[in-house]
Specification:
mainly alpha; Cytochrome Bc1 Complex, Chain D, domain 2; 3 domains; disordered N terminus
């Protein structure tokens, strides 16, 4: 009996010592052999923070080819001067950024200049990234260096002369880069009034929204006096993001947050150049950051969302075109079909004063898109070979009057100008 008691006492003592050692290790960040885990935990946290920031900066959208390996490059950015390809930014020493130091990485991000002195084209948004905080750049660097290197060389940017002379970008930077990175008076006022510094950092710097939503001059520099007031990208309108303009199209703060988080809202779903922004970036942002972006764009006291007024005639020829071509998916009364097609009643493209996006979608269609959580939008076919310019104009005019509150008629010439028919 005494032998069993001694064995039980010994086992209890060992368990107690093991528990104490484990708790001592947890409390001091070290194991029983004295190895320190604190540095490892800190590095892991830095990598995770860098991953989040890389998503907020939407790096994957330009550095990942369609259906390609993330960050291996190959995506072509269309510019008026030619196609600029996103490069490999995995830590491969030959084709990627494996030979970069943290200082090199920060310099490339904020100055648009490679370690060897090569100037980058401003399709890489270094004029927006100019304001990236050094600690954020270092976290992004830690993340990219933690990825597996992929030894793949992507397509090379080869713009026609004289744009092929990269040294000339030194002159461009001297003329425009500083202006692009300076906040406008409107930005300063919004930040001061709303305390929206985080929102401004996400929208203007990391998200570089101005790169698409601001018109550019003949030299490709943003027109700062028209910041976020809309521009044409790949033939589509990147719409005006001013609070008043968004309210005119039916946007309110809650809808904007939903749109950024889910890629869709009552106002429609993301397509064209905006879909990759959702796919690679905004869906990963925290609710707090999405709220900061909405607050910066819509202001503390946002204007009320305008209600659309239906005024189209029931016997209009455009209505018959809608019933024949669109109602099967979008509903007889424009109500849409869940998980299939957006409704037209609140659609921002229908409500825009510019018919460009509506006409382009009717003409070209929209690819199928997956928004996660079993939510998707099916492919919409284009009607370029079914509807002529006059019919497209009639259809667009009726839809805009019926659901968009836009009375101005769309004519065939406008359709031809938007679709590029005059060049065929």
């Amino acid at each position: 009996m005494m032998r069993y008691l001694l064995v039980l006492l010994l086992l209890t003592s060992c368990a107690t010592l093991t528990y104490a050692a484990d708790n001592f290790a947890d409390a001091n960040g070290a194991d029983v052999n004295g190895a320190d885990n604190t540095d490892t935990n800190t590095a892991d946290n830095e990598i995770e923070r860098g991953k989040y920031l890389a998503r907020a900066a939407d790096c994957a959208a330009c550095h990942t080819a369609k259906d390609g390996t993330p960050y291996v490059g190959g995506y072509g950015v269309e510019t008026p001067f030619g196609i600029v390809y996103g490069t490999n930014i995995t830590p491969d020493a030959e084709y990627g950024i494996g030979h970069y130091s943290a200082d090199d990485f920060f310099h490339v991000l904020t100055k648009g200049e490679l370690p060897d002195g090569t100037q980058l084209y401003p399709a890489m948004p270094y004029t927006a990234y100019h304001d990236i905080k050094r600690e954020d750049s270092d976290a992004m660097y830690a993340y990219f260096m933690s990825l597996d290197p992929v030894p793949v060389e992507g397509p090379q940017t080869d713009l026609p002369w004289p744009f092929s002379m990269r040294w000339s970008l030194n002159v461009w930077n001297w003329l425009f880069a500083g202006l692009d990175s300076e906040p406008t008076a409107a930005e300063d006022n919004a930040t001061a009034a709303g305390g929206a510094e985080r929102g401004r950092y996400l929208v203007d710097t990391l998200g570089h929204c101005g790169g698409c939503h601001t018109p550019r001059n003949v030299f490709g520099a943003m027109q700062r006096d028209k910041y976020l007031q809309g521009a044409i990208i790949s033939g589509y309108e990147a719409p005006n993001l001013a609070a008043e303009a968004m309210a005119e199209r039916g946007w309110d703060p809650a809808s904007l947050r939903t749109y950024l988080r889910d890629g869709m809202s009552a106002q429609g779903s993301m397509f064209s150049e905006m879909y990759p922004v959702f796919k690679h970036s905004t869906r990963y942002l925290t609710d707090a950051d999405l709220a900061a972006m909405e607050n910066y764009l819509m202001d503390d006291n946002p204007p009320p969302a305008k209600k659309s007024v239906q005024s189209a005639s029931a016997d209009d020829s455009g209505r018959q075109l809608y019933l024949n071509s669109c109602a099967g998916c979008h509903g007889t009364n424009g109500e849409g079909v869940p998980h299939v097609a957006s409704d037209m009643i609140n659609n921002t493209s229908v409500r825009s004063s510019n018919p460009r996006n509506l006409v382009k979608v009717i003409h070209e269609g929209v690819a199928a898109r997956d928004f996660g959580d079993f939510e998707r939008r099916h492919e919409m076919p284009g009607f370029a070979n079914i509807l002529d310019a006059d019919q497209t104009a009639e259809l667009a005019t009726w839809m805009r009057r019926q659901w968009g509150g836009q009375q101005e008629a769309v004519n065939a010439k406008t359709v031809d100008d938007i679709t590029g028919a005059q060049e065929k």
